[in-house]
Amino acid sequence: MSHSCPNCHMTCDGSSSFHLAPDPSIIALLHSNQPPSASMEATLRAGSNRISELDSLIPELERKLKSLVQERNLLEWMTRHSRIILNPVRRLPEGVLHKIFRHCVSDSTTSRSSFHPDSHPWILVNVCRMWRQTALSFPLLWTQVHFNMSMIPKSVRARGRLSKESPHDDFISYEYFMKRFHLQLQRSAGIPLDISFICDVNMTNDESSVTSLCNDPVTNEGISYLWPFISSSYRWKRLLISLSGLTLEPFSFIQHSISALETLEIVEGLTTSSYHQVQLLSATNLRNLIINNVDDNSCWQDLQLPWSKLTTLTLRGITTSHLNASQIVQVLCRMSSLESLSFTSQISSWDARKYPHATPVILPKITRLSYIIVQSFTGETILGSQSFDGILSLVVLPSLKQLNILYKDSHYTTDANDGIVSMLRRSSCALKTLNFSWGPMICDPLHLLQCGSCSSLEEISIFWVPVDSIRDIISHLHANDHIRDLSHAVASESVALFLPGLRSMEIDLSSPSLSAEENESVENCIMLFLESREAGGAALERLYIHVQMEYVMSESFERRLLALRERGLRFYMSRYDHNDPRSF
Asked: Are the C-beta atoms of 497 and 536 separated by less than 8 Å?
């Protein structure tokens, strides 16, 4: 029987005839002495039994309701997280996060202090709880300490505008710096440190401006920021110094506590008097020296270093005429263990003709020589072939194994080919690796390849080379008679006798001007080259090709490549987006 509520008129089903709402007849009887009817009396007597029945049903229904509510809540939670659960990768392994963090830190610039709240790795610990836990348990993340002294505030800024806890601009107070510095030392857990001291102050040739800079209160205040670093000098593995116009007095206290140092980089701005204070003779593990934009040769020659232990020297971005080849060679002679010599960016004009009677110096341990100019700047300083020739004419490198000559410049045309070939012939070395660019510098790479020192080459890399030149070079690698017509290469009886030890080749075909027809032509050229060397018993083991992002390999080239891969060739291809240079 259905029951209806007198207020809301809702109905419910039930087996009892008992009215859920008060009966008007009962209310009337309550206000009189009239006896109830027989049916009403029976209903009233049955009420107690019905109450007992309901009391026994309610607990079971409450338990069922609670169970249903719990099931609903669980389903609601699962539905809300179903998008995450269905994702095949829901949580990055700790090792992957470590690599990501290291990449973030290594990709960051040293122009901003590593103590700034928006710099790495501090920003990584604020992403989420898991990232924070991972970052704090990864000591290598905290080993790069970069301090830019341009962030040092004037006294009024430090006292008035900056909080000791969190700076609101690019300046940091001494208290804030000390707190971050000690935190970073603690989190690096004793691992060797990569230290950089940068001072972005524009220097001029005016002596008065240098004096003014040294007397600047902000600069003098900055010296106090250096002292805490000195206390950790026993952990320095790499040190970069670029402190324009500042005294290096604090560095005089690290003479006996820098045994872990392996790499030292000197950047522009230091004066001769400053260099005398850099005494690192106790750096017995120092192996790498980088001279970056230092104009005065007499300055870095006066550095107190364990020169005889250095194995790598890089001269980068030297732009004035204060240096000459003879001075550089004198320094090289002090490095009896030198194995690698590199010239990168712009170098001043060291004219070999100034030293016509100089006797070449033998540097017996150098195995790697690099001359890399990607893009120079227009202006008064011009990079000429005399720069490199001046060095080459004064050295003999009998142990040279790797030669890197990479030059790409749209402003100046040079030819260092003769100087390189003369040095190789004079050295009687046996090159194993040659990396070169056609560019405006190497005007005749075939002349270089025909040099006796290249007869034992095992690896060749060609960059920034026009398509016609690529075909010409490859055709000369088929046989010793330098066949230029690739159509006759396979039929030649002297196939693969030229550079018989060649095992690896890298070719750059990423020029945006390369057409589809040219791509197909180069593919055919490369394939004939590979097949001819295989037929001659000197098959390549590895082939690297750099192509445009939109490059599509032809079916014929792919099919023939797969056949060569089955016979042992390892083929690698990378795509280059010219709109994003980092994609290379």
From this structure: yes
Q: Give the DSSP H or E segment for 144.
A: strand 144-148
CA distances from 477 to 162, 402, 441, 503 (A): 67, 19, 21, 12
- Look up residue 159 and give its amino acid: R
Can you name the residues that pair with 368 across neighbouring β-strands? 340, 402
Instruction: From 435, 431, 421, 434, select the one nearest 453 (Cα to Cα).
Output: 431
Residue 170 corresponds to which tokens in the numbers above?
């690019």
Longest CA–CA span in the chain (Å) reads: 146
Q: Are strands 402-407 and 433-437 parallel, antiparallel or unpaired?
A: parallel
The Cα 238–Cα 195 span in angstroms is 6
Structure tokens at 280: 């690192």
Q: What is the DSSP letter of 462?
A: E
Contacts of 182 (CB under 8 A, 6+ apart): none
The model carries a pTM of: 0.71
Beta-bridge mates of residue 279: 304
* 352 vs 342: CA distance, rounded Å: 18
pLDDT tens-digit profile of 299-356?
566 677 888 899 999 887 655 455 566 777 878 888 889 999 988 765 444 444 444 4
Q: How many CB atoms are located within 10 Å of the residue 292 CB?
A: 18
H helix count then E strand count, the chain: 18, 18
Euclidean distance between CA atoms 504 and 101, whole angstroms: 33
Characterize the bridge pairing of strands 340-344 and 368-373: parallel
Tokens of 161: 């505008």
pLDDT digits (tens, 9 = 90+) for 199-236: 654 433 344 443 443 444 444 455 566 677 777 888 88
> From CA 162, how far away is CA 165, in angstroms rounded?
8
Rounded Cα–Cα distance for residues 46 and 390 (Å):
121
Strands 2-4 and 11-13, bridge-based pairing: antiparallel
